[in-house]
Amino acid sequence: MHEHFEHTADLGLRATAADLDTLFAEAAECLFEAIVELSAVKPNQSVEVALTGSDREYLLFDWLRELLRLADQDRMLFSKFKVHVNDDGLIGTAWGEPLDAGKHELIREVKAITYHELKVEPHEGGWLAEVIVDI
Amino acid sequence: MAKGTFSGPLEKVDACCYRIPKSFRPDMRVDGLIFASEKMIETLRHDQACEQVANVATLPGIQMASLAMPDIHWGYGFCIGGVCATDPAEGGVISPGGVGYDINCGVRLIKTNLFLDDVTPHLRGLIKALFHTVPAGVGRTGKYKFDEAETKRILSEGPRFVIERELGTLADLDHTEANGRIDGADPDEVSKHAIQRGSQQCGTLGSGNHFLEVQVVDSIADADVAKAFGLEHNQICVMIHSGSRGLGYQVCDDALVQFRNVPQKYGITLPDRQLACAPADSPEGKKYIGAMRAAANFGFSNRQLLMHQTREVFADVFGRSWQDLGMHLLYDVAHNIAKLEEHTVEGKLKKVWVHRKGATRAFPAGHPELPEAFRHTGQPVIIPGDMGRASWVLVGGANSMLRSFGTTCHGAGRAMSRTAAVKDAAGRRIDKELEARGVIAMSSSRQGLAEEQPKAYKHVDDVVNVVHEAGLSRKVARMRPIGVIKG
Predict the structure, then answer these.
(1) What is the mean pLDDT of residues B406-431?
(2) Smallest Cβ distance to B249: which of A11, A58, A111?
(3) What does R_g of chain A's alpha carbons equal in angstroms?
(4) Which residues from A are below 8 Å from B447, CB to CB?
(5) Contact between residue B56 and residue B41 where contact means Cβ atoms under 8 Å apart
(6) For chain B, which terminus, N or C, has the lower number of CB atoms within 10 Å?
């Protein structure tokens, strides 16, 4: 599950899930939902992401940051994610398609992932993640 | 708004300044000093910004006090409106959070020899032409595309590079802070990704609170300085508020990743990891400084190209060259930057890193760094307000060097979160409301106008009154918007 929450000049992403793999996928969806109407983004092409790191919060940060970088660099939007998180990093796949101004209405620009109140913690038997993004 | 209230001491120093004594927390090296009115201070208790002022007071090498301007609000690490100076000779640090993501976000004011009556019959056409010509909004790239080598030259040289391509005049540089070029920029420290983001965006407005406004001088507060600046009642001006676009954001983002383990390396304990910093003279510090200066030069160049496009539109609409329209640059100032400057601290002249995050340089009359044109008045300070009410031109005040490292406020400061502003705007036509107030607003997104509605901001008059009273900068002229384009 995921949702946006308000935060002064910017936007908060919040995700909850039973396990870390689902949590990271939910957080990614939450990110792209802030950018574009996700239902209009077809999961036609995929890209792989491999990251190392043992700090779960930095790992979430780096995952979202890398997705933003790929989206920006390759002019892509992503709508579907699958992630496997382990003790020293993650492997993830993101599916999406090239940005098409005619098809995709951009809601806002996410300019950066921030460290503010960055959270990945156990929550009600599962996991909770919160990230503030600069918009 | 941000969670949490500040329950620490806010001792009144005078009518426009409050102190958080360093005794408030054992890790504070200096006091916090917030320039604010009594009315503002009570609201401030409900914002994490005060705690952030105290956090900055823990930084190694910090001089005098951790300062905040009256447009203070919560930010990443440093609050917006946060100012501090660190002395590298005392292990003083450089902190990307003290500059901000949008490096050299800033503002410039362009004069014209047009008056309200000249422009009113053409206003809608003018705003439409500006809206269609000046790229604004999410993901918009510009008509000026630079390859990697050219972008690196912009990072080194600033607007001079584009002026040599007839996209401005050399006189524009005389009227830009630092002559549009911060020395010591190192384009090689700017990542490929940052360069890629910037190469297509130079000359674009961006989104969020960036804007291009056609304004009319509404009232003159200081007749002598207004005359020296070339401002008069009912005169039409154009204000441009924008920064270093994706490039600057990427430089900050890259630096924050690089700085993750750096404080520990130098034995620096931080109350907030977003204050990630390095000694300014360390290899890591120097790399960030080189990249930050490069991004700052990009910001000046971006505003130069935005001005050039504005001049072209005016020439087209009014049928005369921009020179014949008197469209000269009054001044361009940065309000997210860190600069190595000479300041007197406890009677000693020191070279310190002044971090201005949502704060503007405001050098007083006589300061040697000022261009000839402003040596006898003091530096023009451009303060953007919100799109419904007012903006200001101030002049550097006599007390700025003593009280605030030559610094003043930068704008109105948000009063309402973006989400709250959008909710509040539900069912309303902000563009129609603005039109009823005499402002033609065009935005590439309806959400943009909602997020930026006047209610979302504090009143800039209140902010400007505080810095005027504190002697940081004096009021010169007030402008109100008559047309605005936004992303």
Answers:
(1) 86
(2) A111
(3) 14
(4) 107-108
(5) no
(6) N
Res B112: pLDDT: 98
Cα dihedral value B245, B247, B251, B256, nearest 10: 50
> What does chain A come to in residues?
135
What confidence score (pLDDT) does residue A9 get?
A: 66
Tell me the pLDDT band of B58, cut-offs 50, 70 and 90: very high
Helix (H), strand (E) at residue B464: helix B460-469
Residue of B362, B449, B358, B447 whose CA lies nearest to B397: B362
Residue pairs between chains A and B whose CB atoms are closer than 8 Å: 69
Q: How far B459 CA lies from chain A's nearest CA (Å)?
A: 16
Whole-angstrom Cα distance, residue B37 to residue B26? Answer: 27
Model confidence band, residue A8 (pLDDT cutoffs 50, 70, 90): low
Sheet holding A76-86, edge to edge: A45-52, A89-98, A76-86
The DSSP code for B444 is S
Query: What ipTM does this complex have?
Result: 0.91
| Nearest residue to B396 (alpha-carbon basis) of B431, B414, B370 | B370
Give the phi and the psi of residue B6 in degrees, each rounded to 5: -100, 115
CATH class of A2-134: alpha beta
C-alpha to C-alpha distance for B285 and B293, rounded to whole angstroms: 12
A134 interfaces chain B, CB cutoff of 8 Å: yes
Burial of residue B247, with CB atoms counted within 10 A of its CB: 0-12 exposed, 13-18 middle, 19 or more buried: buried
pLDDT tens for each residue of B17-40: 999 999 999 999 999 999 999 999
CB contact under 8 A, B196 and A134: no
User: How much is the pTM?
Assistant: 0.95
List Cβ neighbours of B167 (8 Å cut-off, separation of 6 or more): B144, B304, B305, B308
DSSP A1-21: -EEEEEETTEEEEEEEESSHH
Domain boundaries in chain A?
2-134
Instruction: Answer whether A59's CB lies under 8 Å from A23's CB.
Output: no
Query: Predicted confidence band at B361 (pLDDT cuts at 50, 70, 90)?
Result: very high
* Separation of CA B483 from chain center: 21
Token pair for B168: 């401005």
The C-alpha atoms of residue B373 and residue B357 are separated, in whole angstroms, by 27
Check: CB of residue A46 under 8 Å from CB of residue A92: no
Task: Report chain B residues whose CB lies below 8 A from the CB of A112.
Answer: 101, 249, 252-253
